[in-house]
Amino acid sequence: MAKRKDDRRPLRPATAMVHGGTTRSGFGETSEALFLTQGFVYESAEAAEARFKGEAPGFIYSRYANPTVRMFEERMMALEGAEDARATASGMAAVAAALQCQVQAGDHVVASRALFGSCRYVIETVLARAGVTSTIVDGRDLDQWRAAVRPETKVFFFESPANPTLEIVDIAAVAEIAHAAGAKLVVDNVFATPMFQKPLELGADIVVYSATKHIDGQGRCLGGIVLSSKEWIDENLHDYYRHTGPALSPFNAWALLKGLETLPLRVAQQTRSAARVADLLAESGKVPKVLYPGRDDHPDAAIVKKQMTGGSTLVAFEVAGGKEAAFRFSNALEIVLISNNLGDAKSLITHPATTTHKNLTPEARAELGIGDGLLRLSLGLEDIDDLVEDIEAALAAV
Q: pTM of the full predicted structure?
């Protein structure tokens, strides 16, 4: 739980999401101030020198840090239980920064195979161009993590739940393997949201988010964030961040602060809807496979119960008939919208094989369980009865 600046009693998550990290100007505004500025001025040349030398506190340039962005970082730190954070322009900027800032030519990365397509690209293409090798493993198989370790292994990386099949990785177990090898563990926690899973408490060293998803949650802006210990941020991310410039814009930081105020409410409602829709699909007799972390028939249900406090706002399911049937189902929906995004106030459906994971080979998609009939459904805030009727009508169309 977050603490207020005067160290009075701890604040619970919902309260911290309204008040955490707030810094007020001399005007005493209720809402967080939006500081749309590139730079800052100094009272004297001596003051500028002292600030650049780190001898005096204050902001220098908004590519380095900004008051509104810092409020967002501190509110996320309060929610995640992290010592420090750096906000980025997008979720992929957060992933790329978290990985690139701590490896160099000759190093080795181990990653789970169940990843968003762009994450695979960063690991297998971007890092490879810099001389960093990688090994892709089945994230659920602890023996594969152990076998992949080399003397030069520096980083482990995975998503849990993974995109789009909601595959679960045992965070504590993989963290133990990583630390025994002298490596750092980076966890992408987007699908669980910070409301349902705390990777740092489970042994992860670094957590990344696409704040574009549930944190904004209303389709307004892009954003990302990297959270870790102050020591790791200072030694690895600080200089990389300042010099390569993946900084979050102050306006987007302000929008994300507003999103955090309602995050607990939105995620709770979306999860209730997801659970009901998952049951509807599973009991319909028309869907061969339903994957939802809140159901006991999820392949990794035992790990879900160990490390997550809630299911998810997403459901993955497969319709019989491949791409044609999946398209027919999607096109029959009237309330649920077709989109590659997720975690929005509006319910969204995605066909991963032709969108988010289209760049994987057919063999790689098959290995991950991404068939032509697989759909990923992100539940929004609509009335659940309307969503049920919409999905039932789409099932009838299939």
A: 0.94
Contact 19, 9 (CB under 8 A): no
pLDDT in tens, 274-290: 999 999 999 999 999 99
| 244-254 per-residue burial string, b: 16 or more CB within 10 A, e: under 16 | eebbbbbebbb
Q: Closest by alpha carbon to 309, among 169, 172, 197, 170?
A: 197
Which helix (H) or strand (E) segment holds residue 255: the answer is: helix 250-283
Q: Spell out the domain ranges in the chain.
A: 13-258, 264-397
DSSP H helical ranges for 53-192: 67-80, 91-100, 117-121, 127-129, 142-148, 171-180
3-state secondary structure of 385: helix
Give the fold, CATH level 3, of 264-397. Answer: Aspartate Aminotransferase, domain 1 (3.90.1150)
289-325 residue pLDDT tens: 999 999 999 999 999 999 999 999 999 999 999 999 9
Distance between CA atoms of 232 and 67, rounded to whole angstroms? 22
- Find tokens 């992100």 and name the residue: 378
13-258 to CATH, choices 3.40.1390.10, 3.90.226.10, 3.40.640.10, 2.30.30.100 = 3.40.640.10
Q: What is the DSSP string of 67-82?
A: HHHHHHHHHHHHHHT-
